[in-house]
Amino acid sequence: MTTLVTGAAGFVGFHAVNALLDQGVDVVGIDNLNAYYDPALKQARLAHLQARPGFSFEKLELADHEAVLALVERVRPDRILHLGAQAGVRYSIDQPFAYANSNLHGHLSVLEAARHLGDDLKHLVYASSSSVYGERSSVPFREDDVTMRPASLYAATKLADELMSSAYASLYGTAATGLRFFTVYGPWGRPDMAYWLFSDAMFEGRPIKVFNGGEMERDFTYIDDIIAPLLRILDDSPPRGHHEVYNIGGSSPVKLMDMISSLEGALGMAAEKIMLPMQAGDVTRTYADTSKLERDYGFEQTVRLDEGLARFADWYRDWRNREA
């Protein structure tokens, strides 16, 4: 068995590839190693993976559909885990075309490559996002909620990915599953996310920026709680033409100020706070209804935020020391 993983040097991709290798699965990874955040972190993840048997790597742009198709036809994977994308809500305000290139053209490249595999491809699993729900007052967010008012271009591209995947399932019989991730965090995480930005500021003696006066809630989900159900889903073989979408989240939203308090405790230092208004494209809360995932794949949250942030803090101190 060979699994193709896009975004292999990314946060979720790195952990997913490690878990697949632990299962004895051969993995071909794709990543463009762009500079959206510190490439040294991506290179460090990649070096860890390349030291493991069963892993090979190709650096390429997902939007290069001819290169993606050539690789897929050479490798003939039986499963594709598509995690490569331009991430970040706020970055999409300044760099909109990066999202069209990666999240739209790149996703279409993967769908086209999957189509050419035909019956040889057992399952295409791809990353969507909780951002598709936009700003809404009704909680928790359910997969069958109407999601036609995304609050950012990033969210709009992820919603478009779901629609394109559904179309390819209908037209060509591609078995595909989309995963709406809710604020994934943990060791080897993303430096553009709040818990990492806050940690950097606190270690460097800078104030942290708290948007919307701290009146925000997020459904934080520890990375291990993402990977376990992701692998069960990927290992499934849905019938041809089947397309499904699942929430993967903690189902227990945490107030932003409570997260900051937990992070202060984990790092052993207090944060100076600057209260700022809401940023464009952001939403006040996310809250996953995971009953569908629990029913179909036995999902459960096992790592609480305090414990998860403590694990991140231990890794983060070590990372800073290595970088220094």
Write the SSE topology.
Elements: E1 2-6, H1 11-22, E2 26-31, H2 39-50, E3 55-59, H3 65-75, E4 79-82, H4 91-94, H5 96-117, E5 123-129, H6 153-172, E6 176-181, E7 184-185, H7 194-203, E8 208-211, E9 217-218, E10 221-222, H8 223-235, E11 243-248, E12 254-255, H9 256-267, E13 273-276, H10 291-297, H11 305-323
Parallel strand pairs: 1-2, 1-4, 2-3, 4-5, 5-6, 6-11, 7-10, 8-13
Antiparallel strand pairs: 9-12
Physical arrangement of strands within the biggest beta sheet: 3-2-1-4-5-6-11
Oligomer kind: single chain
Structural class, by secondary structure, is alpha/beta
Within CATH, the superfamily carries the name NAD(P)-binding Rossmann-like Domain
| End-to-end separation | 40 Å
- The amount of beta strand, in percent, is 15-25%
The structural domain count equals: 1
Task: Give your account of this protein's structure.
With 324 residues, the protein is α/β, with parallel strands linked by helices. The protein has one domain (2-190, 220-251, 286-303): Rossmann fold, CATH 3.40.50. 44% of the residues lie in helices and 17% in strands. The chain has a 7-stranded parallel beta sheet with strand order 3-2-1-4-5-6-11, sandwiched between helices. Strands 7-10 form a two-stranded parallel ribbon. The chain has a two-stranded parallel ribbon with strand order 8-13. β5 (123-129), α6 and β6 form a beta-alpha-beta unit. It is globular. The relative contact order is 0.14. The model has no long low-confidence stretch (mean pLDDT 95).
